[in-house]
Amino acid sequence: MSKELDQTDCAIIECLDADSRASLAAIGMDVGLSGPAVGERLRRLRDIGVIEGTGVRLDLRALGYTLQALVRIKPRSGQLHRVEQMINDQPRFMSCDRVTGEDCYVARLALRDVAELDDILMPFHDRAETHTSIVKSNIFKDRLPPLLG
C-alpha cells in the first residue's frame, strides 16, 4: 500500500500535530471534511503506518526538570550492547539516536539541576566516553518536516 499523502491528509496531520486531542469534527471543520470522513482518513493513515500514535507535549520545567543535556556517548571496545542497555534503562534519557562518526549515540537528558549529571553518567565511565553539552535554550521544539513535495 502506498504511503503517498494528499493535501487533505497533510492538513489532518498538521491539525493533530497542533492539538492531538482535537475532535474529529473540529479537524473536519479545519480541513473541509465531515468528522466521520476525518476518522476514515485517520484509520487509513494508521493502517499504512504514517501515523504511529498521538501524544502530549510536556513542559519539563513544570515537572521540575530545569535543565536538559545532550550527551554524546562512545562505548569502549566490546561494550556497545551493554552501553545501549544502560542508556535504555536510565529513565532520565528522553531520547537517544544511534549516529555515525566518532560517537555511537547522542542522547537527551532531563535534569533537575546540574549536580545530577555526575550521578547519572558515572555508571557509564567504565564502559564509555561521554561528552556533555547543557542545552541553553530551544530554538524550536520537534516539528513536522514538509509533508508534500
Automatic annotation (TrEMBL):
Q: Does the keyword Cell membrane apply?
A: no
* Record's keyword annotation contains Transcription: yes
Tell me which InterPro entries the record gives.
AsnC-type_HTH_dom, Dimeric_a/b-barrel, Tscrpt_reg_AsnC-like, Tscrpt_reg_AsnC/Lrp_C, Tscrpt_reg_HTH_AsnC-type_CS, WH-like_DNA-bd_sf, WH_DNA-bd_sf
Cellular component (GO) terms are: cytosol
State the superkingdom. Bacteria
Fetch the SMART domains from UniProt. Answer: HTH_ASNC (SM00344)
Tell me where in this chain the HTH asnC-type domain is found: 5-66
Record-level Gene Ontology MF annotations: sequence-specific DNA binding
Q: Entry's Pfam families?
A: AsnC_trans_reg, HTH_AsnC-type
For this UniProt record, the keywords arranged alphabetically read as follows: DNA-binding, Transcription, Transcription regulation
For biological process, the GO terms are:
response to amino acid
Q: What is this protein called?
A: Transcriptional regulator, AsnC family
Q: Which organism is it from?
A: Cohaesibacter gelatinilyticus
